Amino acid sequence: MPLIETVNLCQKRGERDILKNVNLQVEPGEVFALIGPTGAGKTTLLRLLDLIDVPTSGKIYFDGIDTAGSARMRLELRRRMAFVLQKPVVFNLSVYDNIAYGLKWRGIGGSRLRSRVEAALEMVGLAAEKGRNARSLSGGEVQRVAIARAIALEPEVLLLDEPTANLDPISAARIEELITSIIRHYATTIIMATHDMSQGHRLADRVGVLMDGELVQTGSSREVFTSPRNREVAEFVGVENIIDGVIISSEERVVTIESGGKLIEAISDYALGEKVSVCVRPEDITLALTRLSSSARNSFEGEITWVVSMGPLARVEVNCGFPLVALVTRRSAEEMGLAKGRRIYATFKATAAHVIRRN
Questions:
Q1: How much is the pTM?
Q2: Which of 10, 84, 249, 326 is the most exposed place for a label (fewest CB within 10 A)?
Q3: CA-based Rg of the chain, rounded to a whole angstrom?
Q4: Backbone angles phi, psi at 142, to 5 degrees
């Protein structure tokens, strides 16, 4: 049985639909990432799951219990969860007392309180700062205090709203390391909202893509990142190669797609004449100075229009009659002499071409 389940969950603000028929299941101990652009409704959904707000319609079940009950019952369920806000609030107290605050409210004191606070301080790496006023800390340290305050409660569900959104890269990396430690050391179910697709890919067991208030796709991070359901999801998760065309032949699920006079082979169940888009991730494209003799069904000659170094990688843009972007190692780019104006062959397998229907 899922620990958290929503059924046709809707939320309005005035006449505006913030969430539309969201159906979601999160299993005990799972790390689930809600990804989506700013304004998609991620924070609204987290607030509903934490029972801070009441939905316009639909149901939320926690451990099989319908949460649309009495205020007392909702409070009891809320105490099984902890919510870390995108911009957490710290009190004008020491780091230690900030972390102890929620425990005191729940009637926990003495040695139990001390052991939980000390353990949380160690987990977030702030044991040496426990006497400092929390308002004197940096943004990354404040976020760690907020996470420590949450895990000290030993929640069954930890909700994180954009945990690294306002942090510099070093602080963000430390928060990600902390979340990874929590995942490894606790059986806590984590639901995390983020607009950083790669963060969801790194941390989550499953991801859900929320766009314009609708949960448009859920699955493993690999499924969502390699097989986006529509063009909007593909663009959001960073599929740079999206080629429009029409299916002109099909044989045993191998389809041929015509695009601007070029033919692309892919695997698809779509019918003849269907207007589709072909999605190919840059890392699935191989570049060579001569046409390769391989099992890859798609090979196109083109001219390099741009090359940009990205650390150990190089991003290469090629005009093949349609634009393609490929990622190769910087060493390979240097050895092949890849530069603007050079002729090149871009190759990818039919299995690397994900086909989606055009609206």
A1: 0.88
A2: 249
A3: 25
A4: -60, -40
